[in-house]
Every structure is written in C-alpha cells, then in structure tokens.
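User: I'm writing a tutorial on reading structure tokens. Could you give me a worked example: one chain, its sequence, then its tokens, then a sentence or two explaining what the tokens reveal?
Assistant: Sure. Here is the example chain.
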Amino acid sequence: MLTGLLLGTAAHAAEVTSTGWGSAGSLDLLVDGEHVVTGELARCDADGPLSARSDGGVAGNVADFGFGGSTCGRTGAVATAQGGGQRFETDLLRRWGGPVLKVRTYSSGCSTTESGSTGSMSIGEVSGLTVPSSIPANYSITIPGGEAGTAMATVTLNETVTPQPADGSLVTHAMHLKLFPQGGPASGDLYLGTAACNPYGKGGQPGGKAGAPE
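And here are its predicted structure tokens:
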C-alpha cells in the first residue's frame, strides 16, 4: 500500500462551522464527440449524508468503476471526510496507443485543524504506470503520445489543491488523469478518491476541483 500526506494551513480567527465532503471519484471527459460526466460518485458531506456508497459500473464506455464509498463527520470544530474505491480500470488511452490503467484500491481523506486542513491518501496495486514506493505530494507522470511530442495524458498521484492566497481549505485526490493537456483529439479529467475540507466554512463548501470554496 502506498501512502502520502498533505497539509494546508492559514490563519483565521473567526468562529465558523468547518465543512468537508468526500467521494469515490468522478470524470468529465469529451471523447469522440461524446461528453461523459458522472458527477461525484458516492458523495458524503459533513452536513449529511454522512456516508454513501456506489456499486460502480461502466461510465460511457470509457472507464469502469468498482465499488466505492465515502464517510464524513464533524466533532466540535473538526470536520472529516474520506472517499475511495476499488477495482478501477480504463482502457481509454489504448485508442491512441497508450496503456490500460488499473487501480485495485485507492482512497483520500482530510480533516480540519485550528489553522487549516490536513490530507492523506493511499493507493495500491497500480498497473499501466510505474509508481514509486513512497509518493510525494503532486507526483506527476507524463504519458507520451500526443501530436508533436506533446502528452497523451498526465497522471497526478497524491494531488493536493489549495487556493491562492491560502485560506486553510484543501482538496486532495488519490489520482487525477488529465487527457491531452496541450490539446488533442480528446479532453477532460478523471479523479479517483476525493476529499475536501475547509476549517472556516467559507462559502459553505470547499471547492471540489479548484480548491476554492463554492
């Protein structure tokens, strides 16, 4: 099992309710003229529902999600969120000569602190990519194969997203796949295991992909 740890902090004094949510993952892809969107799979929220699950299934014939689930909660000022799943597979990149990607297990979690948020992730038995035994934050892998030497895709493991300037919120993804980031025949993003936390409740919810509150 491979793990990583993330940390986001900021100094605020206001007394507000912390927020957090988690999901098993999501995708938003444009492939061969077809727009495939799942929304957040098995999403939980510190304000409810506190847990969710998904039996998985094929999304638009581009990815196959296995079982997924999430749990959220709040104890006093501390909000927590965790989301993950198992047996994910996509052969989407084979259309352009790339690898089949498989992830047996994955999860991301976060919790708020007095001065910010902390995040963590784990991922196990990845095939189609070479993954280090210890994954640093925002570890990026480029999959070549785009036109004129550009990337077919980038895969970021242990991804952390924080706003600038920092406000204490944090979003973490176990894996983020971005198709043809420099442009090409397809586009979009796929996420496995998402958790978002905001200690100050700014905007009511932390942002799911950009790190800024919604």
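What the tokens reveal: The two ends are 33 Å apart (CA to CA). The CA atoms of residues 86 and 184 lie 30 Å apart.
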